[in-house]
Amino acid sequence: LVALLEADKEGFLRSETSLMQVSGRAARNINGKVIFYAERVTRSMQLVIDECDRRREIQAEYNREHDITPSTIYKSVEEVMISTSVADARQPVQVAEAVPAYDLSTLDQHDLSFTLDLLRREMKKAAEALQFEDAARLRDEIIRLGVRPGDRVLEIGTGSGYQAAVLAVIVKEVYTIEIIPSLAESAAKKLKELGYDNVFVMAGDGFFGWPEHAPFDAIIVTAAAERIPVRLIEQMAKGGRLIMPVGPVETSQRLTLVTKRMDGRLIYQVREGVRFVPMTGRIQEK
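and the corresponding C-alpha cells:
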C-alpha cells in the first residue's frame, strides 16, 4: 500500500512525474494499491490515473496472450541492499573501526572512486540512520570537484549528513547549510556522535552561503535552481570550484561546474543531464 497525503498540492513533489514514481512503488505486489488523499483531482493526478489504466490494459492483454499469471516479486533484504547500492561496489571488505586518513592527492580517478566506496561502506556500518540511495551520485560530485586534503568546502543542502561525513574524511573543513531546521539539528547531532569534529552545520538559507567562513575552495549545491546564486560565486576562493544542477526545476537540469581562475575569471562547464529536488528559500523569488 502506498498512501500519498495532500496529493492535490501541486508542485515538484506532486507533479505527474513524481506521482508516477511514487505510484510505481506498489507495482511489484499483486495486491498493490495506491491511494491519493486529496480534496480535488488535479491534472497531474488524472494523467497518472489515466496512464496507469492504459498500462494495466496493455499488461493484462499481454498476460492473456502468453498465459501469464501475475505474482508478487519477493526479494530478501540483502537483495534489496545490493540492488540499491553503488553500481560498481565491490565485495565487502574488512575496515578498521577508525576511518584511516587517506592521501587522496596521489590517487587517480579509479583509485579515488574505490577509496570513496570504502568510506561509503564504513559510513553505512556506523550510521544506521543515514540514507545511501544517492551514494553514487554524491561520490561522482566529489570526484568532479577534485577536492583535496587541505580544502575548505561549503555544502548547500545537508540532508542526512552523509555527504558531509564523506567530505570530512577527505578535506580539512566542511561547512554545511540546511534550510530545514529539524534536518540540520538531526545531522549535526549524528555527525557529532560519529566524531566528525571538522564539520560545521548551520540551519539557514543556502542562497546566502556562509560569508563569515569564506572563501571556500569548493562549493557543492545539492539542489537545483535556474541560476547559480551570485553570493556563492563571490564566496569561491581563487582557484576554487563550484558544482550545482542548473535548469528548470520542473523538468531536468544540467550539472554545471564553475571554476574561478586566479585572475578572478569564471569558467563554466556544462555536464550531463540530471534531476535534483528544487532549491528552496530566497532563490525562488523572482
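(Above: one complete record from the training split.) Confidence is low (pLDDT under 50) at residues 77-105, 122-135.
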